[in-house]
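Model it.
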Amino acid sequence: MAQEIIEAVRDRFSLADKNKYIIQGNLPKNCEVEVYLDQKKQKNFTVERDVEQSTVEIQLPEDLSGFKKLSVFVLQGNKKLRWFSGKVENIRRKRNMPQYFVDYLDVDFQRKKCTVSGWAVYQSPIDIYVTDNSGKKIGCRIERVNRNDVQEQFQEWDVGKYTGFLAEIPFDQEKSLRLVFQGEKCRTIRRINLQKSRIMGEKAGKYCQKGMRYLRVYGMSGFTKKILKKAEDYKNRPYPYVKWLSQNTPGEGELESQRKAVFSYKPLISIVIPLYNTPIQYLDELLKSVTGQTYGNFQLCLADGSDNDRAEEFIKKSYGEDSRILYKRLESNDGISENTNRAIEMASGDYIMFSDHDDTLAPNALYEIVKEINENPGTDIVYTDEDKVTMDGGHFFDPHFKPDFNLDMLRCNNYICHIFVVKKEIQEKVGMLRKEYDGAQDYDFILRCCEQAQKIRHVPKILYHWRNHPASTAGNPESKMYAYEAGRAAVQAHYDRLGIKAKVSMTENWGRYRTELAVEGNPLISIIIPNKDHRQDLERCVDSIYNKSTYQNFEIIIVENNSTNEEIFHYYRQLESQHDNIKILEWKGEFNYSGINNFAAEAAGGEYLLLLNNDIEVITENWMEEMLSYCQREDVGIVGAKLLYPNDKIQHAGVIIGMGPSRTAGHIFYNFPRDQFVYAGRTQTTQDLSAVTAACMMTKKSLFYRLHGLDDRFQVAFNDIDYCLRMRQLGKLVVYQAYAELYHYESLTRGDDKNAENKKRFSAEVKLFKKRWGELLKKGDPYYNPNLSLARSDCSFRKKNE
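Modeled.
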């Protein structure tokens, strides 16, 4: 029998309490924990157990002098195993010091460059720099980047967004370098060896030491299991963007092939750019990136509202002979919208493309856009993925890998942004940019164009580099609050044009908006809850519906399925006597989630069905209104909710097709903290998805009947995903409603899923799902991105061999 791994994987001091020492790792489900300072048993500690990682927090004495060792033991039966051991001398050195982690280190001896990435945190801002062994600073580029994942580890302190770093360090004859994390009155140093033999020796020594310790403590069985787990973790480890980019950027050979490519349709692309006191270095980089495109049928329309002649002189001198570049000096600077409009007036192309005056294009940007247009005749709009670039243009970071067109996500934030290309006829139909939305004029324009477009295409490639500088929202979002208010007004105007009753408000995350739709009428909602025994769970669920819900026009249909406990039948009778809007139905067959819900739907009187697990507890009082208001839309067929574990970790924030161990479907950002701002803010953004879980799912009853309900061949798993995908085939949207929150205690109704019979059943359902939806699994979820990993739920970058 495989031995359970018991391991402490990281330890640190709390940022909020200098005497609290935090140790995290794997603990057995049923065990006791003992803490010792030398031989003295400690009582002041807490243990928090979690599925993936447990935490022991120890309140250490202020004065640690005289102590030599901190030890934590795990007690299982008559066994006492050492879980953690640390020298007090080393622990004391960590107190009040900056904390860091290096997750990528690459020494390129051929190019004489060392690349290091990771994160660093402290109670106050940290300065990061590099020195040689003598302490002399070495000039290098160190970029601070957004690392949302770090906040998850330091939940006791707001560490801020830009805790990540990426350093590119040149070296010559140095044998080692020192990476310094400087706090206000202290510093931590990470030594970096630059000798091949020492690098290999360090790695071998570290792995050998760990391996021997495991072999001694857990024997060959535990050692083997750990090796396999490490191999799996290594395989699924997060992928640094710098490495992803190096493997996904077209080489010169591929670019040359693109230059020779001949398209059957060769649209003229008009790139419109307003200039205003653009630094010549940035302007030159922009123009080189445009004129270096592998697709050459373009015109560059530059409208210059500068208060000096530098840009004009530079363009005429360096690019005056290129007839594709059209330049116009404006008499006055009338703002971003009006200046862009002057550039649009210069355009004569089949498509209009927008760019900022200090950003750059990937060399294959126009080629990929025109290729997409040729492969999809009649395309009205094309947009692409993008990343950010440092001031000097030398380093790319923070990529935004976007989904295919996602209407409700667009109503929450301008995720399309760059590159945006629109057919000239659509632009002429919607008109010019509007000055009243300056700061979010592109957002307003994109919304108006999307309202008129029939075919919107997405190229999932990084084709635009957004310069990251203090005056830009890319680098300092707080600097342009007026732009975010303009964005809110743009979304509100969008709803008003469509005649949709909605209230748009700003959220605590700048540039992201919340839409509250009005409920039309007072339709009856039929809440269907399958149940077997588990009175306590069902009672918690039903009580929360009655006591916490502001929407009152609902009925509850409980489907009794072979309960054996008399207590539950007593509770059923109690419910029927207390409430006139509760029905108790009896399903006498074996458990079949699809069959049970289909059975209950026949007895439902509501216009809307709300499928609900019996292990759900309401959090948001207006959860039904939040779901119903979206479900009432003509273009929507299903609405799902945000579901949380009782510890406020995410259980469900949407389903991605192809994600998870079986590569069928998985929950995105599973087990992440409730309020953590994750990649692209996806857990906090109401959006369209391919599927949501039926643990809490609302759907129109008319569409439920049209699709003949859930497929009962999916007895337990995938019935909800299959239903959602069939709904998508009808052309209806599946919406994840981020503002309807409920607790989900998960899988209490059907019991253990790991016995042999259930494993066999699950395997059969996986096979059926893959057979039915094989084409989608091969093509990929349109609401995800092919550049993001399916092996992890955190939107890590996809590896080349995944």
